[in-house]
Amino acid sequence: MVLSVKNLSVTYAENVAVERISIQLEAGQAIGLLGANGAGKSSTIAAVLGIETSTYDELVIVGKSPFRDRKEVFEQVGVQFQETRFQDKLTVSDACKQWQALYKKTADVPALLQTFGLAGKEKQLVKLLSGGERQRLAVLLALIPDPKLVFLDELTTGLDTKARRMLWKQLLAMKEDGLAIVLTSHYMDEIEALCDKILILRKGQTVFHGTIQEVLIASGKATLEDAYLHFAGEEEQWG
Ligand SMILES: Nc1ncnc2c1ncn2[C@@H]1O[C@H](COP(=O)(O)OP(=O)(O)OP(=O)(O)O)[C@@H](O)[C@H]1O
């Protein structure tokens, strides 16, 4: 098991942001964490990584505790955040080198640059990359540790169709090689392309956890988008 979370809750002051969430993930599997804005997806990821305080019955990530074995977990887990911030004078090559320096063992960076369509852009300032290129760089950096598990937050927001397809293809190939993925996305085609199972949060509560086929049956809807809206409580109202 690459990730085992049992009954994890996150509370801010008196507000419960996530209540008793459980996730089990094996090597080569991907789970989609779904929910409306504010449903608790980012809080869950932060808690699983040990960045946010939480209560839980079990929290084991790549066989370790994110608190006691922070270093070992860090070496084997990649994280792509929604908006990665880069320094003004940083080039693509500098960013890769800085990231590589953080890890003992790293993936083949020139190969990753090729895969992500950034070969030839090594000397360009990160701030001058297009939004989509910067997004691809953020995913590339998350893969530099050659992780067993990667957290991808809003993976292809802002990417064009071709870039999205290329990224999916690459991640599917990495899954075949055993990479486990926790993905948050508001795009249901992305979830269908990459995920073996989904967990839908609504105001911090798990309202569905299962496969895509199961969510269609349970909701009585024909498409994942309709099934998602049914469970996430986004039908016909804000919030
Ligand atoms: N540091 C914090 N302090 C207090 N409340 C917080 C904090 N972080 C998040 N929250 C609240 O916890 C709830 C869950 O937020 P979270 O960011 O986990 O949602 P999300 O599902 O990731 O949303 P989005 O899709 O908008 O990124 C929200 O009500 C949010 O306002």
Automatic annotation (TrEMBL):
Entry-linked SMART domains: AAA (SM00382)
Gene3D superfamilies given in the database record: P-loop containing nucleotide triphosphate hydrolases (3.40.50.300)
Organism for this UniProt entry: Paenibacillus terricola
Keyword Transport set for record: yes
Keyword NADP found: no
PANTHER family from the UniProt entry: ABC TRANSPORTER ATP-BINDING PROTEIN, ABC TRANSPORTER ATP-BINDING PROTEIN NATA
Protein name listed in UniProt: ABC transporter ATP-binding protein
PROSITE patterns to which the protein is assigned, alphabetical: ABC_TRANSPORTER_1, ABC_TRANSPORTER_2
Family, per entry: Belongs to the ABC transporter superfamily.
Key words, A-Z: ATP-binding, Nucleotide-binding, Transport
Pfam families assigned: ABC_tran (PF00005)
GO molecular function, one term: ATP binding
ABC transporter domain ranges (all copies): 3-228
